[in-house]
């Protein structure tokens, strides 16, 4: 009885803590939404108008009717997706080798690849900026995509390797007996079977690329080439107190695609992360 | 005549060896690693070697005329600002790493307890925490600026004003700006620690807790003698990841405070960026980049030295 009573108190305390934590994590986003729905006058009323008296979608209309803003969104999506796709192409063969071959130094090599993940993009961009300017790769989406691929490759290799680990070998062995080459087996059997794992790795990397700031900020100068992350930073630099509500709307538009992608694939992403984390 | 025969035989052999050569190439694991090796070689290894080289020159981002010298190295280490930058970086990193892990562990424990008692809303809580993690760093800084702002639209100060408490200079007071930067970083980074600890907690053998209950252990004793020792490896791995992540944090600070007020929140990565891309001092920035690499490596090795040995843990 006393035990049950104590558990009930524990439950109440659990809920109370959960509400406090939820409030901490929700408030910034709720505030962003609140500001983005206000008129300029109501922005100056602060927290007293947390729920705007006259909510308006004008800020969103202003942003989304601007063709350059749509271009920023498109650039962000294009760079993130191409980066993710390139990552898979580069990482999948290596992941296959790490999953299906036995060779000495394999785990050391895998740790070495993961160690690259620890290096700040800033460190490599210091010299890369100069190479790229000499090679004429500044202000090109191609150059940015290549750097995205390089930065995503270590994590992608690990994610795809654990996806391939989960596929039974028997189908590949059957294909080999039927005379299929190793590469043919990899391309026609392994990769299609690993599709769900490849998809979650792809989405995770696209989400990470979507937040990339430093690389496009340094390597792209022309306004029409910028992805959304750089565009909102530049916009924040030029905006003032009277355009806060527009900045809030722009931020929200930049953030929502990542949140939606995450929510739709939450289970796959959390699974991939925890698999990597436990082995890590 | 003999030479042509030899050539013909060689050709014949090659024709026979043809398919088996392809098979041999694809049976070699290193063939499969070539794309990754090329990408990492071109975009990581070569630039890193070049960073070491450039640190010993007087290179600038705009000029192309450079020569080898140790003047840059000397100047950078004699720069009185560097010590302050390193202190700022240490405070930001330690506070973020401790904050994110403590908070992440607390949430993971809370969610575990809620799931054990079959309470509702635990998945929703976990999801909400994780949503903060996918917010781009730049947006994170801008959002928290709207919360900390001292203008009328600043959320926290306008609530304080409504409660007749005097507003706080969250971003313009040098001492408080660091706290604000840490809070915003903890908000975004906690999710990662939470999910790592959540996975590790699930992996703990429940019979350990049952045995402890039989022996009459309380909640705190279970936490102290079972949970924390069992989480040791997860905490260490997570510490490495979070520390390096925090050291490399750049976008969330540049958009929140820009390193200010003054230099109160200018961490090493931001200082490196400013040195190279604002002052065009490529050589100086390379010295700082090497410093960043060395600090990351030393810290990773430091944590790794506390790792339990595999034989012992398994």
From TrEMBL, chain A:
User: Which positions fall inside the ABC transmembrane type-1 domain?
Assistant: 73-265
Against InterPro entries, the record matches this protein to:
BP-dep_ABC_trans_perm, MetI-like, MetI-like_sf
* Segments crossing the lipid bilayer: 12-33, 79-98, 110-129, 141-160, 191-210, 246-265
Membrane topology note? Multi-pass membrane protein
User: Do you know which Gene3D superfamilies this protein is assigned to?
Assistant: MetI-like
- Protein's cellular compartments: Cell membrane
Keywords in UniProt for this one? Answer: Cell membrane, Membrane, Sugar transport, Transmembrane, Transmembrane helix, Transport
- What is the predominant subcellular site recorded for this chain? membrane
Which Pfam families does the UniProt record give? BPD_transp_1 (PF00528)
The family line of this record is: Belongs to the binding-protein-dependent transport system permease family.
Q: How is this protein named in the record? A: Multiple sugar transport system permease protein
């Amino acid at each position: 009885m006393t035990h049950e009573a104590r558990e009930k108190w524990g439950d109440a305390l659990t809920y109370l803590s959960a509400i406090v934590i939820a409030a901490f994590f929700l408030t910034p986003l709720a505030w962003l939404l609140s500001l983005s729905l206000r008129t300029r006058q109501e922005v100056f009323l602060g927290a007293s108008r947390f729920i705007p008296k006259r909510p308006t979608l004008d800020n969103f209309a202003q942003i989304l009717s601007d063709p350059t803003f749509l271009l920023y969104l498109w650039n962000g999506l294009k760079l993130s997706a191409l980066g993710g796709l390139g990552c898979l192409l580069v990482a999948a063969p290596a992941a296959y080798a790490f999953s299906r071959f036995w060779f000495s130094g394999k785990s050391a090599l895998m740790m070495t690849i993961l160690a690259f993940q620890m290096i700040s993009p800033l460190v490599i961009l210091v010299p890369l900026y100069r190479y790229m300017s000499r090679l004429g790769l500044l202000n090109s989406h191609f150059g940015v995509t290549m750097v995205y691929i390089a930065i995503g490759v270590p994590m992608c290799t690990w994610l795809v390797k654990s996806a391939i680990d989960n596929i039974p070998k028997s189908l590949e062995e059957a294909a080999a007996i039927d005379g299929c080459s190793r590469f043919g087996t990899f391309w026609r059997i392994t990769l299609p079977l690993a599709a769900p794992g490849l998809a979650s790795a792809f989405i995770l990397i696209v989400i990470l690329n979507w937040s990339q700031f430093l690389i496009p900020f340094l390597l792209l100068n022309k306004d029409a080439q910028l992805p959304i992350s750089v565009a909102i930073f530049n916009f924040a630099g030029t905006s003032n107190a009277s355009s806060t509500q527009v900045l809030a709307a722009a931020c929200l538009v930049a953030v929502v695609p990542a949140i939606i992608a995450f929510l739709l694939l939450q289970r796959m992403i959390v699974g991939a992360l925890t698999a990597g984390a436990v082995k890590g | 005549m003999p030479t042509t025969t030899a050539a013909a035989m060689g050709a014949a052999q090659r024709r026979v060896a043809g398919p088996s050569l392809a098979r041999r190439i694809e049976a070699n694991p290193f063939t499969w690693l070539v794309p990754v090796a090329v990408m990492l070689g071109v975009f990581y290894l070569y630039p890193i070697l070049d960073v070491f080289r450039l640190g010993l020159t007087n290179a600038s981002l705009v000029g192309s005329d450079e020569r080898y010298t140790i003047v840059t190295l000397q100047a950078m280490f004699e720069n009185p600002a560097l010590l302050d930058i390193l202190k700022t970086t240490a405070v930001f990193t330690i506070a973020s790493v401790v904050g994110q892990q403590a908070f992440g562990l607390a949430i993971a424990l809370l969610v575990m307890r809620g799931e054990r008692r079959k309470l509702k809303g635990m998945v929703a809580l976990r999801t909400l925490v994780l949503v903060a993690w996918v917010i781009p760093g730049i947006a994170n800084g801008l959002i928290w600026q709207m919360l900390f702002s001292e203008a009328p639209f600043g959320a926290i100060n306008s609530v304080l004003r409504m409660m007749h408490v005097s507003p706080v200079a969250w971003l313009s007071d040098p001492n408080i700006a660091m706290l604000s930067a840490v809070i915003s970083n903890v908000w975004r980074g906690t999710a990662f620690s939470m999910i790592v600890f959540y996975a590790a907690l699930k992996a703990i053998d429940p019979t350990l807790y049952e045995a402890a209950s039989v022996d009459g252990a309380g909640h705190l004793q279970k936490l102290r003698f079972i949970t924390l020792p069992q989480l040791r490896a997860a905490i260490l791995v997570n510490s490495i990841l979070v520390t390096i992540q925090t050291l490399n944090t750049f976008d969330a600070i540049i958009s929140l405070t820009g390193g200010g007020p003054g230099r109160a929140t200018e961490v090493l990565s931001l200082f490196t960026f400013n040195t190279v891309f604002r002052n065009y001092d490529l050589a100086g920035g390379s010295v700082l980049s090497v410093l960043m690499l060395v600090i990351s490596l030393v810290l990773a090795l430091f944590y790794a030295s506390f790792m339990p040995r595999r034989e012992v843990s398994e």
